[in-house]
Write a structure and sequence with these properties.
The complex is a heterotrimer of chains A (342), B (276) and C (499). Chain B has 276 residues and is mainly α. Chain B is built from 11 helices and 2 strands; from the N terminus they run ααααββααααααα. In chain C, α9 crosses α18 and α15 packs parallel to α16. The radius of gyration of chain C is 25 Å and the shape is globular. The chains are: A mainly alpha (342), B mainly alpha (276), C alpha/beta (499).
């Protein structure tokens, strides 16, 4: 399996320009007032503290999912199950929150976050274990497992944990003492933002300053070399998966405690794929994940504001991601084939 | 019962046959899902406007080919990572169907009109079933008896040897991608035209199941055909169990994924055991 | 024979920037119906020159005229289209396909609509089989063939494509299963029907026996072309290996301790052919050099020691225990510098420092976290001690070959191994790097470590060996202290001329 390596500056630049031009072109084509829509797209995220705060909250979630993905990529493995892992982490957070009764706020929060993290880690870990044990392709197994988990989580929200009094397909609200401290007015921005920044530095230290990180990076770059050095590498088919899934699970539980405060059908959808996009923009480097997540959150926020203020109702998010995925790993941008002499 | 299983499995067989061409050419095509989805959408769109399911079907194949061309061009020409561009193709399919659906039909939801022409059937059987059977036979023939088939397999097994013999791997792999686009597009049409409606993301993992079916079917058209029948059969019987145990629909939706995953695990377990 | 079939003028090719030229202004003229031998040491540029002709490598400069048409083939298919076919040393067949499919690939007779005309293909194959006396069973899978059948299939696949010039890379290594006579017969047959053959070889006897002309290559240049009938093997050997003065051996004290590594009747058989058969002992304080041409079994020996290949018979003893499996050497703290520096010996996308700490990275950490600055300090020490041009954080792929080799040497020697196995220690290095590497190896020896060197470099072998083992065709052709063996004697043993 060819691993995903970092991209050149040129590739990142071309990709970002193309990603920005997608909403611009589509708005120009389909809006009744293209100029206004495009202005909203670019300035919308900064028009109010509510918009800005939500964008930063989204950034925090993208940082965590991006980190999860970058550790998998660094180890030379794929985790395409982020969607399911984040959703399962979130529903675990909801269920635990609804059932820890009298536990104090801080302890409760720690328990809930840990549970979400472990859920994500366990799900991704299964694929890692299958890979190690029987060489089951992790790219496909993470996706299939995630597909199943998404529906099972839908079931939990729609049936056993459904709040029948709500018009939404959702669970009951979690106890208020578990809510994360808010930072910016009515927006969703909360202290998980700082925790996710802290996670970046932890991930950086883990990857670049720890012996395990050293082994993982070498395994991702050249398995032959690791084997030649006499380092047992098989466990590095599992450990990065656990970490990757754990980060997704953590993002899911953060979004419950900090933002949604309940489980709603499909409420974390998109975070899984977004994490991959962010990692790729950041060239798999934990530090660059912060600007990568900011850029991506800005694109998402811009399209959302542009939509609210227009007559349109479609989503760009997938098209933007598609363009990023199409271009970000390109090694060159030659439109014509090599012409040979002779 | 048999009829229902066949209806369920036809789209997957078509997509898996398409994926077989790319697989034999050495390209792991995780974009089958997206190729099916644009096919499903195009079939409804064109049938809606022309009133002809035949034109709708042709449009589906063309839509699949178009997306496959974009996907192939970027991957092969820009030397991009095929897994990432494959994900891109899947997301592109979701995005473009969503966009066109809102622009043309004014909805992001289900597209269905009451006077939609019903699908041709021969006896009790869906016409696409015959297309799937015919495609299976033609695929066997193309792979084994034609110059393209030989060059395709040679490229997939060993691109550098093929290159020495003057086989242009770019053109072979591109052609295989276009075929996979056409067949997956037809698979998508089989899905949406049978229902007479387009539902957002209606492929629901079928492209991935098709991908796994290629391996479980040992990369042989007949093997793939049988694997798809078995997977659909397993799904059918678990759905039938619904009647007995009243299983909620969300859990039913998880079954195809779990059944396919189980098949994949058993397959890799057997492979690993045989290796030892 | 008025105009020659092939003219190559001033061909040059450099693979990586800052590295030596693989081919450096080579010229070659091959007439119609001519058997032309190209001979030279490993790395002389023979294969690269032929790969340029067969369209696999594109030259930096030069001119090719083939069959009165000037142009450089951009791809192997273009070369084939012009009538140039090459049979590679490593058989290029696809085991999953049938014999017929392998043979017709790229030149499939078509019956319209892109359908393969099987009848026509079989007919043509039968014609070729009779003409060249090469039998083949068309519907057998290549994976089920023995090596003899594979070789015939590979040859038929080239002949199927109507060529004018056939390039054979080391044909008698290749056709080991066929009688050498029948290879010669085939080559003469090709000549008799007007085709030309270019043969790359190491073997002097072979060159003299079959060639019309012999071209000698050295250091990427074509030194001279001779009529085969007028050559004297002794003189030719001097031309091939250079006629510089023999360098005196630099052997130090010869007090050897206990055996560290013993190969006892180690045998490796592949496809029924004996590839290697060797016994040797490396003792404390001893440098043992195994030499020969690369194809004589050196690569196989390395892979057996690293655990990549499993021996067909015999054992490898490390001190008192038998070695098996891939990580065994490392577990026993033996040093190993592989010939494959890029894929195995280094992590090219990691930094110099990260490559240096592979064996002792845990010693720089406390509770699993690296101590700040400790790795950098270690890397700077090694960089200074081994004269490496670079800084600790620099990515390996930006270094020259000599510096990459120094990084590997520094890593392995600083770990103070009891036994060090080095494959091709100085391949492609300049004089300065070479002498540094020898010095470090001698230091290690003087500390009492045993060293096994696997090298196809003659000069190196003669200079540093306490014990010299020369392989020819997978067997030990000479084993001794190397006294009385000079360059040309060694060269002759290596080439199988003088046994």
């Amino acid at each position: 399996m060819n691993s995903v390596s970092g991209s050149s500056i040129k590739t990142v630049a071309v990709t970002l320009v193309a990603a920005v031009s997608i909403p611009v072109i589509l708005l120009a084509l389909s809006s009744e007032d293209p100029l206004q829509s495009i202005t909203f797209f670019f300035t919308g995220p900064f028009q109010s503290t509510y918009n800005l705060g939500n964008m930063l909250d989204n950034t925090a979630m993208l940082i965590l999912t991006g980190l999860g993905m970058s550790i998998a990529f660094r180890a030379g493995t794929f985790n395409l199950g982020g969607e399911g892992q984040v959703y399962a982490g979130a529903i675990t957070a909801v269920i635990i929150s609804l059932n820890i009764g009298n536990t104090a706020g801080f302890t409760g929060i720690v328990i809930v976050l840990t549970a979400g993290l472990l859920t994500g880690a366990l799900i991704a870990g299964i694929s890692g274990f299958l890979k190690k044990q029987w060489n089951t392709d992790e790219l496909i197994s993470t996706f299939l497992l995630s597909g199943a988990i998404i529906h099972l989580t839908d079931f939990l929200i729609a049936n056993p944990f459904r709040d029948r009094s709500s018009f939404l397909i959702s669970t009951e609200k979690i106890p208020e003492k578990l809510f994360l401290y808010k930072l910016m007015g009515s927006s969703h921005l909360n202290i998980s933002f700082f925790l996710s920044i802290a996670a970046v530095f932890l991930a950086y230290i883990f990857l670049f300053k720890s012996t395990t990180g050293y082994e993982i990076r070498l395994t991702g770059l050249n398995r032959k070399f690791v084997e030649y050095g006499g380092i047992p590498y098989k466990r590095h088919l599992v450990i990065p998966m656990l970490i990757s899934g754990g980060m997704y699970g953590l993002a899911g539980s953060f979004s419950v405690l900090g933002n949604f405060h309940m489980g709603i059908k499909g409420f974390t959808a998109g975070l899984g794929w977004n994490g991959i996009a962010v990692t790729l923009i950041a060239g798999n480097n934990p530090i660059f994940i912060i600007p990568g997540a900011l850029i991506f959150a800005y694109l998402e926020a811009g399209t959302e504001v542009a939509m609210i203020h227009s007559d349109l109702s479609f989503e760009f998010s997938n098209l933007i991601k598609a363009v990023i995925f199409f271009l970000i790993t390109a090694k060159r941008f030659k439109l014509r084939r090599k012409v040979t002499l002779g | 019962m048999g009829n229902a299983i066949l209806d369920m499995t036809t789209p997957i067989i078509l997509a898996a046959l398409g994926g077989l061409f790319t697989e034999l050419g050495g390209v792991l095509n995780i974009a089958l899902e997206g190729l099916m989805l644009v096919g499903a959408f195009a079939a409804i769109l064109i049938t809606e406007f022309t009133g002809s399911t035949l034109l709708g079907t042709m449009g589906a194949a063309l839509a699949g080919i178009s997306l496959a061309y974009i996907f192939g061009f970027i991957t092969l020409r820009f030397r991009a990572n095929i897994f990432i561009t494959g994900l891109g193709a899947n997301l592109f399919a979701l995005g473009i169907t969503n966009y066109l659906s809102s622009i043309i039909f004014g909805t992001k939801g289900v597209i269905h009109s009451p006077e939609f022409p019903s699908l041709l059937r021969i006896g009790n059987y869906n016409l696409f079933l015959f297309a799937a059977i015919l495609s299976t036979i033609i695929t066997v023939f193309i792979i084994n008896k034609t110059v393209f088939g030989l060059r395709l397999r040679a490229t997939g097994y060993n691109a550098s040897v093929s290159l020495v013999r003057g086989v242009d791997s770019y053109s072979i792999q591109m052609k295989s991608l276009l075929i996979s686009g056409a067949l997956s597009g037809l698979g998508g049409a089989a899905l949406s035209l049978r229902l007479g409606a387009y539902v957002p993301n209606m492929t629901a993992g079928r492209g991935w199941i098709a991908l796994v079916a290629i391996y479980l079917g040992r990369k042989h058209p007949i093997g793939i055909f049988i694997t798809c029948l078995i997977l659909a059969g397993a799904e059918y019987f678990s759905n039938a169990a619904q009647g007995m145990f009243t299983i909620p629909s969300d859990i039913l939706l998880a079954f195809p994924y779990l059944i396919t995953l189980t098949g994949m695990i058993i397959f890799s377990f057997i492979n690993r055991t045989l290796e030892k | 024979m008025d105009t020659p079939l092939l003219e190559m003028h001033g061909i040059a090719k450099t693979f990586h920037k800052n590295s030596v030229k693989a081919v450096d202004g080579a010229n070659l003229i091959v007439g119609q119906s001519e058997i032309h031998i190209i001979i030279g040491e490993n790395g002389a540029g023979k294969s690269t020159l032929m790969h340029i002709l067969s369209g696999e490598v594109f030259p930096d400069s030069g001119k090719i005229i083939f069959n009165n048409r000037e142009g450089i083939p951009g791809t192997p298919s273009e070369a084939l289209g012009e009538g140039i076919g090459m049979l590679h040393q490593h058989i290029k067949l696809i085991p999953e396909l049938t014999v017929l499919e392998n043979i017709i690939l790229g030149a499939e007779p078509s019956g319209g609509y892109g359908i393969i005309n099987r009848k026509e293909a079989i007919k043509k194959l039968n014609r070729l089989s009779v003409k060249y006396d090469l039998s083949a069973e068309p519907d057998k899978l290549v994976s089920t063939l023995n090596s003899d059948e594979k070789q015939k299939t590979a040859l038929l696949s080239i002949l199927f494509q109507d060529i004018k010039l056939l390039i054979l890379d080391e044909p008698t290594t290749f056709f080991s299963e066929l009688k050498t006579d029948s290879v010669y017969k085939l080559i003469r047959k090709l000549k008799s029907i007007g085709k030309s053959v270019v043969i790359i070889t190491h073997k002097l006897k072979e060159a003299a026996a079959i060639g019309d002309f012999i071209t000698v290559m050295r250091g990427g240049k074509t030194i001279l072309t001779l009529k085969a009938s007028e050559t004297d093997p002794h003189r030719l050997s001097n031309i091939i290996f250079g006629d510089e003065k023999n360098l005196s051996p630099v052997r130090s004290g010869s007090i050897f301790g206990n055996p560290l590594l013993e190969l006892k009747n180690l045998l490796f058989i592949k496809n029924g052919k004996e590839i290697l058969d060797i016994s040797l002992t490396v003792r404390e304080g001893e440098i043992v050099v195994v030499t020969g041409i690369r194809e004589s079994g050196l690569e196989t020996l390395e892979k057996l020691l690293s655990g990549e290949y499993k021996a067909s018979a015999g054992i490898i003893m490390y001190k008192t225990a038998e070695l098996s499996g891939r990580t065994e050497l490392r577990k026993r703290k033996a040093g190993y510098i592989p010939s494959d520096r890029i894929k195995t010996g280094t992590s090219t996308e990691s930094s110099i420092a990260e490559n240096m700490i592979l064996l002792n990275y845990k010693s720089f950490s406390k509770s699993g976290i690296f101590r700040a600055g400790s790795i950098k300090k270690f890397a700077y020490t090694l960089i200074k001690k081994y004269g490496i041009t670079g800084v600790p954080g620099q990515i390996m792929s930006t270094l020259s070959g000599g510096n990459i080799q120094r990084v590997m040497i520094s890593r392995e020697i600083e770990a103070n191994p009891e036994l060090l196995i080095v494959a091709e220690p100085s391949r492609g290095l300049d004089i300065k790097s070479k002498s540094l590497i020898y010095n470090k190896i001698f230091n290690l020896k003087n500390k009492g470590s045993g060293i096994l060197i696997i090298s196809s470099d003659i000069e190196e072998s003669l200079r540093i060996a306490d014990r010299l083992i020369i392989l020819y065709d997978g067997k030990v052709a000479y084993s001794g202290d190397g006294k009385g063996i000079d360059r040309s004697a060694l060269g002759k043993i290596m080439l199988g001329y003088d046994r």
